[in-house]
Amino acid sequence: MSQDRPVLQQLQGPSSTRILGVGSYQPERIVTNDELSETMDTNDKWIRDRVGIIERRFAAKDELLVDMAVKAGANALADAGVDPSEVDTVIVPNCTMPSGIPNAAAQVADRIGITAPGAFDLNAACAGFCYGLGVASDLIRAGSAGKVLVIGAEKLTDSVDPTDRGNAIIFADGAGAALVGASDTPGIGPVTWGSAGDLVDSIYMRDHKYIYQEGQSVFRWATTQIAPIALRALELAGLEPSDVDVLIPHQANLRIVEAIAKKLRAKGAREDMVVADDIRYSGNTSSASIPLALDHMRQAGTAKSGDVVLAVGFGAGLSYAGQAFICP
Ligand SMILES: CC(C)(COP(=O)(O)OP(=O)(O)OC[C@H]1O[C@@H](n2cnc3c(N)ncnc32)[C@H](O)[C@@H]1OP(=O)(O)O)[C@@H](O)C(=O)NCCC(=O)NCCS
User: Which of 103, 284, 296, 327 is catalytic?
Assistant: First the structure.
């Protein structure tokens, strides 16, 4: 190669990032287990015992994924005290946007008042938020973005057969968001992510319409394969299990959450580690479940500013991702 060939300039961002603010939104309508048992063969006791859900929120017919994402995203900006004009990138992890085009991110950004941002959806199903947080942090560290709004949002009720008791009792609607920006000290650890595409048939959209899942295989996979991912996220961040103040696994099933916590405690996580159980009142909201739980736990005071939080998402794909971060 001759010596006078042009050399491309490379960008370099700040070395550290953190979550600047968190926000969430849930639809008004509360759906109890008793209400579901009016239309399908199930009951409150079975759902509480097997899944841990007490109630969940269903969006109205005319309330869209995009509407919920706008509210959660705006709440995260308000929490951070950041004006929309300062945001340059919007990522909307989701798996229930009804059409391939347009994506959710560009219209959500526009409605929040963010002008001409980089805007894209990200589909890693229930692992989506942790994937999005990892991408946001690395975009900033690479110099490609300044402030990134990550909004996990789902309207799962459109993708569930309301008479299928295996799924209709689990899935729900909502949105949760985090604003990510530069930091003087490391506030978001490296993401660890991966997939098991050979198990793709265990959760998928049957006939492009309704979610189908082999409940027991997913349960077995999640309770055996996810704790090691969480431990790997800690290792990458240079942390020990005993450093974790708050554990937020994807809220798929309370028994899965408890199994992951038990495995981490067997490796040295503290007994007083707070474990998210937001599924009890929110159901499984896929990409939204982790930021929804984080926002609710901050409001309840169970996750405090400065706490070390360990998040791990997992679901269809099969896909998984996790990272440690500091609670804003
Ligand atoms: C879906 C899930 C709740 C089903 O629970 P399960 O304990 O595996 O239930 P099974 O399908 O084995 O059924 C057990 C019994 O409960 C009954 N049952 C199943 N669903 C029921 C319901 N909604 N209400 C009442 N009874 C139910 C079954 O008929 C069966 O009865 P039987 O023993 O008399 O035959 C559970 O497998 C699960 O949570 N899996 C993980 C799913 C998940 O997290 N997916 C999302 C990943 S992102």
Answer: 284
